[in-house]
Every structure is written in C-alpha cells, then in structure tokens.
Amino acid sequence: MNYPQLAAFTGGAGLIRVIGHRGARGVMPENTMEGFAFTLNCGVRLLEFDVVMTRDGVPVITHNHSLTGSIVRDGAGNWLQGAEPRVSDLDWAELATMDVGGLDGRSDYGQRFPDQVFLYGARIPRLSDLCELIAQPGYGDVHLMLEIKSDPAKLKEDTARAKVVSAVVAEVRALGLTQRTLMHSFDWNLLAECTRQAPEMPTSFLTQLPENAADVGEDHAAARPELTKAGASAPDLVAQAGGALWCPYYLDVTADQVARAQELGLRVAVWTVNEVADIDRMIGLGVDAIVTDYPGRVQRRLLAQGHVWTEETAIAV
Q1: Closest Cα to residue 39, out of 18, 26, 61, 20?
Q2: Angle, to 10 degrees, between the axis of helix 127-134 and the axis of helix 33-41?
Q3: Taking all residues of the chain, what is their mean pLDDT, rounded to a whole number?
Q4: CA 45, 46, 52: angle at the middle one, nearest 5?
Q5: What CATH number should be reported for the domain holding residue 171?
Q6: Contact criterion met (CB below 8 Å) for 62 and 124
Q7: What domain range includes position 22?
Q8: 1 pLDDT more than 90
C-alpha cells in the first residue's frame, strides 16, 4: 500500500526530519497542548506522543500507565502522594482535574529537565483535543507519530488490544487524519492489530535493547526476545513484521543497521536524542528523522552542518 504520510518522515540528501518528543519535553511540559503548540510554533511539524486509555474508554495523551508525583498535581496544586493511581483505573472526569504543567524539581525525574518551564493549569489532553487542533486550517502539514502504550496488566488478550486500537483509530478517523498519522509502539502485537483495523495507517516499530537501561521515572516495554538473539537484525525483523518505519533507541543503532533498514525500504527515526554529540552522530549516520526533547537544539545542529528539516526550510536557507 502507498502511504502518503511517509513522505513527511522521509529524509534525503541534506534533509533530516525533526520529531518533537512529547512535544518539546526539554523545555515545555510534556504531552500537553501547550507543549504541542510551542513545538509547532518552532517550525517542527512532526509530533510524537503517547496514548493511554482511561477506565471509561477515553484515549488520553500521557506517557506512564500511572500518574507520577514528579509530574502530576491535584486540583489544589499539591503533588500527588502515596500510591500512584493507574490511568486505566480513573475516568476522564477525574483526570481532567489534574495539573501537569510542571515538574517537581526535588524528584529524580524532575532533575533530568531543569530547563522545563513551570505552568499552572495545564491539563492532560485527550487524543481528540490534539486531533482537533491539527485538523484546523494552517496545520495541514503536521503529522502524528501516535504511540499506543502497551499496558501489560490490561492488554494481554486479543480482545483487549482490539478495543484499545478501535478507540484510538476512531478518534483519528473522525477528523480525517489517517493520512497524517503513523501508528507507533513497542508492542508488535498492538501494531499487528493496528494494521488489521486501520490498513491505511503505516506502522512504526520502537525497539530498545536490554543493555541500555530505562530512563529514570519512565515506563518502558521489555525488549522482544527476537531482538536479543545472536545475529538478530532489528531492521529485518521490522520489515518481516510489515513495518514502514523503524524507531530504535539511539544508543543501539549503527551505520550498518541504518543502511540495511533503508535498503529494506524502511524509514529510520532514532529516539530520544538530546545531547549535541549524539545529535551529530545521528546526522552522520544519515537517519531519516531524529526524535528529540529539544527540537531547537537539533535544528541548530542540522543548520550548522548544512542540513534542513523540512522542504520549506530548504527554500528559506
């Protein structure tokens, strides 16, 4: 199938795409409408974000399966204390009262992003809120890298996965955004269900090898057993699974793998690349796209090396 949305994630000579990770997490509250608006205003037209289901079946944009005290304040402005409530155990009306406009600087997670602004009154958005924004005139070139979070406690069965995918796909289709959306996940079973229900949307396969530890304060999926076998080729496995895009952790990827992926017809988008030396290495590898918490930092490194991130940028330069 021909997927028109893939062009927005495809690099080329002097062209590497910039994907705002959870908006622009390094400088703005993550997975918020404020963060997405900031990223779009910076000229970045590709957004990566995470979707989790509430108890009453509303797809919401948040990363972890539980509400963490380092990110979330209650309606009175107090950091959440005690056991972290799971999103899947809360209704949308309860989530809508939470404030996610800043980080607790005392927490390990908060200390990772000292430059992030602190806002009051930023809310966890629904998927429909972001879809409504980019369906407006003026955002026709914006594309979504929509990650469905795999909840090991909730999505073991085929029927459960199908229900989540159905809800997400319905939101994207309702606003005519299927040709601007990639379905993105660590859970390859979820991606297979996405292909079954929404063949018009290509799939993007996230990978991370177990030797690279998960970041502090974040949920991560376990590496697939196939990836850990001696001689395993992640690009080949992704291609065999029907993927259109391979999204490896930046510490795992090599020049040979990038070349192999592109030989197989895969786009390569590396995550999450924040430090200048790492950005430069990814540029040198010739990846198609860089997922980053600091879009401006990547833009500046691209420009410094004679690259651009959109065709429109090339004309301006």
Answers
A1: 20
A2: 30
A3: 94
A4: 135
A5: 3.20.20.190
A6: yes
A7: 4-50+146-316
A8: no
CA pair distance 174, 63, nearest whole angstrom: 23
Query: For residue 82, is it within any domain?
Result: no
Say how far apart CA 103 and CA 119 lie, in whole Å. Answer: 9
What pLDDT does residue 222 have?
65
Question: What is the mean predicted confidence (pLDDT) over 40-67?
Answer: 97
The model carries a pTM of: 0.96
Residue 301 · residue 283 · CB < 8 Å: yes
Looking at the domain assignment, is residue 12 inside a domain? yes
Locate 232 and state its tokens. 């395993």
The alpha-carbon radius of gyration of the chain (Å, integer) is 18
Dihedral angle, C-alpha 9, 194, 258, 295, nearest 10 °: 40
Strands 143-148 and 59-61: unpaired
What are phi and psi for residue 240, nearest 5 degrees? -65, -30
Q: Is there a domain that residue 22 lies in?
A: yes
Per residue in 140-166, pLDDT tens?
Answer: 999 999 999 987 776 678 898 999 999
Nearest Cα to Cα of residue 292 among 50, 18, 39, 109 = 18
Alpha carbon distance 131, 113 (integer Å): 27
Joined together, the tokens standing for residue 73 give 């304040």
Q: Is residue 60 part of a domain?
A: no
Do you know the residue count of the chain? 317
Asked if 70 contacts 104 with a C-beta cutoff of 8 angstroms, the reply is: yes
Q: Which of 261, 263, 306 is nearest to 284 (CA)?
A: 306
Gap between the Cα atoms of 104 and 244, Å rounded: 38
Write the CA distances from 47 to 83, 161, 180, 187, 277, integer angstroms.
31, 23, 11, 20, 23
Q: Cα separation of 220 and 129, whole Å?
A: 25
Residue 212: per-residue pLDDT? 75
E strand spans, 220-262? 245-248
Residue 122 corresponds to which tokens in the numbers above?
A: 């930023």
Confidence at residue 131, expressed as pLDDT on a 0 to 100 scale: 98
Total domains in the chain come to 1
Backbone dihedral angles phi then psi of residue 309, each to the nearest 5 degrees: -120, -10
Angle at 22 between CA 20 and CA 23, to 5 degrees: 50
